[in-house]
């Protein structure tokens, strides 16, 4: 696997520092704040490359792609209204991933389990 280029290293650094999933626009803004000159299109291209290398994962929340480091191995319950994420504390990796995919010669970079609904505060605000 190729090592990350300078732009990719900057993206990984931003995701590591913020410790939360970010959109491509948010990543670009953080890189700009650090004084790095990089275009938004370059961020998108590098995010795709990092995803293919298995270094980041992508999810969609509120019709927006958000990116996080693959080292984030928790699974989440995500509120559809406010986007708040709550760790579930469970993993399917050992029970599903290993026996099924290893027999199919499939290299797994990461897995996700996400439950969607409304958190308590949003339930109270909903009509």
Low-confidence region ranges: none
CATH topology of the largest domain, by name, is Arc Repressor Mutant, subunit A
CATH architecture of the largest domain: Orthogonal Bundle
Shape: flat
User: Radius of gyration, rounded?
Assistant: 17 Å
- Full CATH superfamily name of the largest domain: Winged helix-like DNA-binding domain superfamily/Winged helix DNA-binding domain
Terminus-to-terminus distance: 51 Å
Total number of helices: 5
Number of β-strand runs = 5
Query: Order of strands in the sheet with the most strands?
Result: 4-3-5
Q: Assess the beta-strand content as a share of residues.
A: 15-25%
Can you tell me the number of structural domains? 2
CATH class value of the largest domain:
Mainly Alpha
Please identify the structural class as seen in this structure.
alpha+beta
